[in-house]
Specification:
Helix content: 40-55%
Strand content: 5-15%
Radius of gyration: 18 Å
Strand order of the largest sheet: 4-3-1-6-7
Structural class: alpha/beta
Shape: globular
Largest sheet: 5 strands, mixed
Order of helices and strands: EHHHEHHHEEEHHEHHEEEHHEE
Number of helices: 12
Distance between the termini: 29 Å
Oligomer: single chain
Length: about 260
Protein backbone atom coordinates (compact mmCIF):
# COMPACT_ATOMS: atom_id res chain seq x y z
CA UNK A 1 0.00 0.00 0.00
CA UNK A 2 1.07 3.54 -0.75
CA UNK A 3 -0.25 6.44 1.32
CA UNK A 4 -0.62 9.84 -0.36
CA UNK A 5 -0.62 13.15 1.52
CA UNK A 6 -0.66 16.80 0.48
CA UNK A 7 2.11 19.13 1.68
CA UNK A 8 1.48 22.07 4.02
CA UNK A 9 1.96 25.80 3.65
CA UNK A 10 3.24 26.04 7.23
CA UNK A 11 6.87 24.97 7.52
CA UNK A 12 9.30 24.42 10.38
CA UNK A 13 12.93 25.19 9.59
CA UNK A 14 13.70 26.67 12.99
CA UNK A 15 13.54 23.79 15.49
CA UNK A 16 16.43 21.40 16.05
CA UNK A 17 16.70 18.68 13.38
CA UNK A 18 15.13 15.37 14.41
CA UNK A 19 16.68 13.03 11.82
CA UNK A 20 20.31 12.51 10.88
CA UNK A 21 19.63 10.37 7.81
CA UNK A 22 18.19 12.11 4.76
CA UNK A 23 17.56 11.22 1.13
CA UNK A 24 17.40 13.27 -2.06
CA UNK A 25 14.13 13.92 -3.92
CA UNK A 26 14.01 11.82 -7.07
CA UNK A 27 12.61 14.37 -9.50
CA UNK A 28 15.25 17.06 -9.00
CA UNK A 29 15.80 17.48 -12.74
CA UNK A 30 12.20 18.66 -13.10
CA UNK A 31 12.49 20.72 -9.91
CA UNK A 32 15.54 22.48 -11.36
CA UNK A 33 13.53 23.35 -14.49
CA UNK A 34 10.73 24.78 -12.35
CA UNK A 35 13.15 26.80 -10.24
CA UNK A 36 14.68 28.29 -13.41
CA UNK A 37 11.20 29.48 -14.43
CA UNK A 38 10.51 30.86 -10.95
CA UNK A 39 13.83 32.67 -10.68
CA UNK A 40 12.82 34.71 -13.75
CA UNK A 41 9.75 36.10 -11.95
CA UNK A 42 9.72 39.42 -10.11
CA UNK A 43 8.32 39.90 -6.64
CA UNK A 44 5.16 41.39 -8.11
CA UNK A 45 4.89 38.50 -10.58
CA UNK A 46 4.94 36.06 -7.66
CA UNK A 47 2.35 38.08 -5.73
CA UNK A 48 0.01 37.93 -8.72
CA UNK A 49 0.71 34.29 -9.56
CA UNK A 50 0.19 33.00 -6.02
CA UNK A 51 -2.38 35.53 -4.82
CA UNK A 52 -0.33 36.38 -1.73
CA UNK A 53 0.63 39.55 0.12
CA UNK A 54 3.70 41.58 -0.84
CA UNK A 55 5.44 40.28 2.28
CA UNK A 56 4.88 36.64 1.35
CA UNK A 57 5.75 37.36 -2.26
CA UNK A 58 9.09 38.85 -1.19
CA UNK A 59 9.79 35.87 1.06
CA UNK A 60 9.19 33.41 -1.77
CA UNK A 61 11.04 35.56 -4.31
CA UNK A 62 14.08 35.37 -2.01
CA UNK A 63 13.62 31.63 -1.54
CA UNK A 64 13.60 30.99 -5.28
CA UNK A 65 16.58 33.25 -5.89
CA UNK A 66 18.58 31.43 -3.20
CA UNK A 67 17.46 27.95 -4.27
CA UNK A 68 20.40 25.65 -5.04
CA UNK A 69 20.50 22.57 -7.25
CA UNK A 70 21.78 20.07 -6.31
CA UNK A 71 20.27 20.50 -2.87
CA UNK A 72 22.78 21.40 -0.17
CA UNK A 73 22.59 19.76 3.23
CA UNK A 74 22.80 23.09 5.04
CA UNK A 75 19.43 24.77 5.36
CA UNK A 76 17.44 21.69 4.38
CA UNK A 77 15.45 19.24 6.47
CA UNK A 78 13.45 16.06 5.86
CA UNK A 79 9.97 16.63 4.50
CA UNK A 80 8.36 14.72 7.37
CA UNK A 81 9.82 17.25 9.82
CA UNK A 82 9.51 20.36 7.66
CA UNK A 83 5.78 20.28 6.95
CA UNK A 84 3.47 21.47 9.73
CA UNK A 85 -0.23 22.33 9.66
CA UNK A 86 -3.40 20.36 10.35
CA UNK A 87 -2.58 17.13 8.49
CA UNK A 88 0.84 16.93 10.10
CA UNK A 89 -0.60 17.69 13.53
CA UNK A 90 -2.56 14.48 13.05
CA UNK A 91 0.43 12.59 11.63
CA UNK A 92 2.63 13.34 14.68
CA UNK A 93 5.74 12.13 12.93
CA UNK A 94 7.89 13.20 15.87
CA UNK A 95 6.52 10.19 17.77
CA UNK A 96 7.51 7.64 15.10
CA UNK A 97 10.08 5.02 16.03
CA UNK A 98 13.02 4.38 13.72
CA UNK A 99 11.22 1.31 12.34
CA UNK A 100 8.06 3.33 11.69
CA UNK A 101 10.07 6.01 9.89
CA UNK A 102 11.66 3.30 7.75
CA UNK A 103 8.20 1.90 6.94
CA UNK A 104 6.93 5.39 6.12
CA UNK A 105 9.91 5.94 3.82
CA UNK A 106 8.75 2.96 1.76
CA UNK A 107 5.00 3.58 1.93
CA UNK A 108 4.26 7.30 2.48
CA UNK A 109 4.42 9.83 -0.35
CA UNK A 110 3.89 13.59 -0.12
CA UNK A 111 2.80 15.25 -3.35
CA UNK A 112 4.46 18.61 -4.01
CA UNK A 113 4.10 21.38 -6.56
CA UNK A 114 7.87 22.00 -6.56
CA UNK A 115 9.38 18.57 -5.83
CA UNK A 116 6.71 16.40 -7.44
CA UNK A 117 6.85 13.55 -4.95
CA UNK A 118 8.64 13.55 -1.62
CA UNK A 119 9.48 10.60 0.58
CA UNK A 120 9.46 11.34 4.34
CA UNK A 121 13.26 11.58 4.59
CA UNK A 122 13.78 13.54 1.37
CA UNK A 123 15.45 16.77 2.33
CA UNK A 124 13.95 20.01 1.05
CA UNK A 125 14.51 23.73 1.08
CA UNK A 126 11.61 25.93 2.24
CA UNK A 127 9.21 26.87 -0.53
CA UNK A 128 5.65 27.72 -1.40
CA UNK A 129 4.20 26.50 -4.69
CA UNK A 130 0.75 24.96 -4.64
CA UNK A 131 -0.08 22.30 -7.20
CA UNK A 132 -2.97 24.38 -8.56
CA UNK A 133 -0.67 27.29 -9.46
CA UNK A 134 -1.11 28.41 -13.08
CA UNK A 135 2.59 28.75 -13.80
CA UNK A 136 3.23 28.64 -17.54
CA UNK A 137 6.11 26.43 -18.64
CA UNK A 138 7.12 24.87 -21.97
CA UNK A 139 4.97 21.88 -20.95
CA UNK A 140 1.76 23.92 -20.68
CA UNK A 141 -0.37 26.40 -18.78
CA UNK A 142 -0.03 25.05 -15.22
CA UNK A 143 1.76 22.62 -12.92
CA UNK A 144 -0.55 19.76 -13.87
CA UNK A 145 0.71 20.09 -17.43
CA UNK A 146 4.30 20.47 -16.23
CA UNK A 147 4.30 17.29 -14.17
CA UNK A 148 2.31 15.31 -16.75
CA UNK A 149 2.78 11.58 -16.20
CA UNK A 150 5.99 11.86 -14.14
CA UNK A 151 4.20 11.56 -10.80
CA UNK A 152 2.03 8.60 -11.76
CA UNK A 153 4.97 6.75 -13.28
CA UNK A 154 7.11 7.20 -10.16
CA UNK A 155 4.22 6.16 -7.91
CA UNK A 156 3.69 3.07 -10.06
CA UNK A 157 7.32 2.10 -9.47
CA UNK A 158 6.94 2.76 -5.74
CA UNK A 159 3.76 0.73 -5.54
CA UNK A 160 5.45 -2.23 -7.21
CA UNK A 161 8.43 -1.89 -4.86
CA UNK A 162 6.07 -1.83 -1.87
CA UNK A 163 4.51 -5.06 -3.09
CA UNK A 164 0.90 -3.90 -3.10
CA UNK A 165 -1.98 -2.82 -5.31
CA UNK A 166 -3.69 -0.30 -3.03
CA UNK A 167 -3.34 3.47 -2.81
CA UNK A 168 -4.69 5.17 0.30
CA UNK A 169 -5.47 8.62 -1.03
CA UNK A 170 -5.37 11.10 1.84
CA UNK A 171 -4.32 14.00 -0.38
CA UNK A 172 -6.61 16.92 -1.22
CA UNK A 173 -8.35 17.09 -4.60
CA UNK A 174 -5.89 19.76 -5.73
CA UNK A 175 -2.97 17.38 -5.27
CA UNK A 176 -4.51 14.00 -6.09
CA UNK A 177 -5.64 15.50 -9.42
CA UNK A 178 -1.97 15.66 -10.42
CA UNK A 179 -1.76 11.86 -10.26
CA UNK A 180 -4.98 11.29 -12.25
CA UNK A 181 -5.99 8.49 -9.89
CA UNK A 182 -9.31 7.68 -11.60
CA UNK A 183 -7.66 7.33 -15.01
CA UNK A 184 -4.85 5.26 -13.50
CA UNK A 185 -7.33 2.89 -11.84
CA UNK A 186 -9.30 2.46 -15.07
CA UNK A 187 -6.14 1.54 -16.93
CA UNK A 188 -5.14 -0.92 -14.17
CA UNK A 189 -8.14 -3.00 -13.05
CA UNK A 190 -6.16 -4.56 -10.20
CA UNK A 191 -5.38 -1.18 -8.66
CA UNK A 192 -7.50 -0.14 -5.67
CA UNK A 193 -7.72 3.57 -4.82
CA UNK A 194 -9.24 4.23 -1.39
CA UNK A 195 -10.27 7.85 -0.65
CA UNK A 196 -11.72 8.14 2.87
CA UNK A 197 -14.09 10.83 4.14
CA UNK A 198 -14.20 11.98 7.77
CA UNK A 199 -17.31 13.47 9.37
CA UNK A 200 -18.44 14.80 12.75
CA UNK A 201 -21.81 14.46 14.48
CA UNK A 202 -23.06 17.93 15.32
CA UNK A 203 -26.61 18.61 16.56
CA UNK A 204 -27.95 15.36 15.19
CA UNK A 205 -26.37 15.94 11.77
CA UNK A 206 -23.23 14.70 10.08
CA UNK A 207 -20.89 17.44 8.95
CA UNK A 208 -17.51 17.47 7.26
CA UNK A 209 -15.46 20.07 9.12
CA UNK A 210 -12.34 21.05 7.20
CA UNK A 211 -10.00 21.39 10.20
CA UNK A 212 -10.95 18.03 11.68
CA UNK A 213 -11.00 16.30 8.27
CA UNK A 214 -7.42 17.45 7.61
CA UNK A 215 -6.26 16.27 11.02
CA UNK A 216 -8.01 12.94 10.44
CA UNK A 217 -6.06 12.41 7.22
CA UNK A 218 -2.87 12.64 9.23
CA UNK A 219 -4.28 10.41 11.97
CA UNK A 220 -5.19 7.72 9.44
CA UNK A 221 -1.79 7.95 7.73
CA UNK A 222 -0.06 7.48 11.10
CA UNK A 223 -2.39 4.60 12.00
CA UNK A 224 -1.75 2.86 8.68
CA UNK A 225 2.01 3.21 9.19
CA UNK A 226 1.90 1.83 12.73
CA UNK A 227 -0.44 -1.01 11.73
CA UNK A 228 1.43 -1.71 8.48
CA UNK A 229 -1.97 -1.81 6.83
CA UNK A 230 -1.95 -3.64 3.51
CA UNK A 231 -5.58 -4.10 2.55
CA UNK A 232 -8.70 -1.92 2.18
CA UNK A 233 -10.48 -4.24 4.63
CA UNK A 234 -7.98 -3.45 7.39
CA UNK A 235 -8.49 0.28 6.92
CA UNK A 236 -12.06 -0.07 8.17
CA UNK A 237 -10.61 -0.83 11.62
CA UNK A 238 -9.29 2.71 11.93
CA UNK A 239 -10.53 4.06 15.28
CA UNK A 240 -8.12 6.78 16.38
CA UNK A 241 -9.56 9.62 18.48
CA UNK A 242 -13.09 8.26 18.36
CA UNK A 243 -13.54 7.74 14.61
CA UNK A 244 -15.55 4.68 13.60
CA UNK A 245 -16.21 3.16 10.20
CA UNK A 246 -19.76 3.85 8.97
CA UNK A 247 -20.58 1.03 6.50
CA UNK A 248 -24.05 2.38 5.75
CA UNK A 249 -22.51 5.62 4.42
CA UNK A 250 -19.58 4.02 2.62
CA UNK A 251 -18.73 2.54 -0.73
CA UNK A 252 -15.86 0.18 -1.48
CA UNK A 253 -13.48 2.94 -2.60
CA UNK A 254 -14.90 5.77 -0.46
CA UNK A 255 -15.16 4.64 3.16
CA UNK A 256 -16.70 7.09 5.62
CA UNK A 257 -15.54 7.49 9.22
CA UNK A 258 -17.65 9.30 11.81
CA UNK A 259 -17.11 10.46 15.37
CA UNK A 260 -19.10 12.33 17.98
Amino acid sequence: MLILLSPAKTLDFESAPKRKRTTVPRLMSQTADLVAELKALSQSDIASLMGVSDKLAQLNFDRFQDFEVPLPKAGTRPAIDAFQGDVYTGLRAESFTDKQVAYAQAHLRILSGLYGILRPLDRMLPYRLEMGTRLKTPQGKDLYAFWGDHLRELLQDDLEAAGGKTILNLASKEYSKAVRLDHWAKQNPGLKVISPTFKERRGGELKQITLFAKQARGLMAAWAIRQKAKSPAKLTRFDTEGYQFAPELSSTDRPVFVRG
